[in-house]
Specification:
The chain is mostly helical and 288 residues long. The chain is built from 10 helices and 4 strands, in the order ααββββαααααααα. The chain has a single domain, classed as Butyryl-CoA Dehydrogenase, subunit A, domain 3. Strand 3 and strand 4 form a beta hairpin. The longest helix is centred in the last third of the chain and has 29 residues. It is globular.
């Protein structure tokens, strides 16, 4: 069910209040704490390994939200996101297309798009050539397989090894550098995880704009949705996995969390803070 904003009482004709999910009173979360601490890379963990863990974890959380919009309605027997209600994958004036077998963009129902995204992401994160689990040539042991499983924390403390194994592939011995190279990730790893993040962002945008009221508000689950999404945005902004353009359909809610200090400030604000200038949106504890 798409949710439209309502006219504000006493407002001029044509004026509209923002959707509920963009209003501060509905921006609360289910936890207290600091999401920036949760996203921060441990000192002994290689960045590629940490981001692989974070991307898998973000997908696990998103899947839980997707499962909610797939639950059949008791009255109709259909999920709230179905081809009749959501004939396209859209959010706030943005319509997302899928490439067909001929590489041509086509509009498809949102639930079909989401199903394809899930299949595509699952294929990526279970492909050992993209998300390797063999740590023979990695800088750290023990942590890799536990991160790939989607666990929030490693099963043991990573221990630094020698700089390079003699069994490392030839590409690792070359002079080129890339994200995750020392942990055995391919040269395309950074572009792969950014593509995954972009598709997950589209799913969140559709969930909010198409289904915040039904089922999340009606089921009392909107705070869970907010918590998953603020963690997703925090990791994405902290490690530059997502652009402002991609966040655009949800920017008003992101701005609310920025004003509360729940997300890292924009680069210019962060630089001003480093130089001692006062800056809004400094990291603080999460308020429920």
């Amino acid at each position: 069910m798409s949710f439209e904003s309502q006219p504000q009482e006493g407002a001029p004709s044509g004026s509209r209040r923002p959707p509920f999910f963009f209003r501060e009173e509905y921006s609360s979360l289910i936890v207290r704490g600091n999401f920036m601490t949760l996203a921060a890379k441990p000192n002994l963990v290689e960045e590629g390994e940490w981001l692989a863990h974070q991307v898998v974890e973000q997908y696990r959380l998103l899947e839980q939200m997707i499962n909610i919009i797939k639950v059949p309605d008791e009255r109709t027997g259909k999920p709230c996101c179905n081809p009749e209600v959501c004939p396209t994958m859209s959010a706030s004036g943005h319509t997302y297309t899928w490439l067909d077998n001929n590489k041509k963009p086509i509009k498809i129902p949102a639930i079909q798009y989401i199903n394809l995204v899930q299949k595509w992401i699952s294929g990526k994160i279970t492909d050992p050539s993209i998300f390797p689990t063999d740590t023979t040539s990695a800088r750290f042991t023990d942590s890799a397989s536990s991160y790939a499983s989607g666990s929030m924390t490693p099963s043991s403390t990573p221990q630094p090894l020698g700089p390079t194994s003699i069994n490392a592939p030839l590409s690792q011995l070359s002079g080129r550098e890339w994200l995750g190279k020392s942990s055995g990730f391919p040269e395309t790893f950074e572009s792969d995880i950014k593509s995954i993040y972009r598709q997950m962002m589209r799913c969140y945008a559709h969930i909010y704009h198409g289904h915040w009221l039904d089922p999340f508000w009606h089921a009392g689950a909107y705070k869970e949705l907010n918590t998953c999404f603020v963690h997703f945005i925090n990791v994405g902004k902290l490690f530059n996995l997502i652009t402002d353009k991609e966040i655009e359909p949800m920017q008003p809610l992101v701005d609310v969390w920025l004003s509360k200090g729940l997300l890292p400030p924009p680069p210019q604000a962060a630089q001003a803070a480093k130089e001692g200038a006062p800056s809004a949106g400094q990291p603080q504890g999460v308020a429920s």
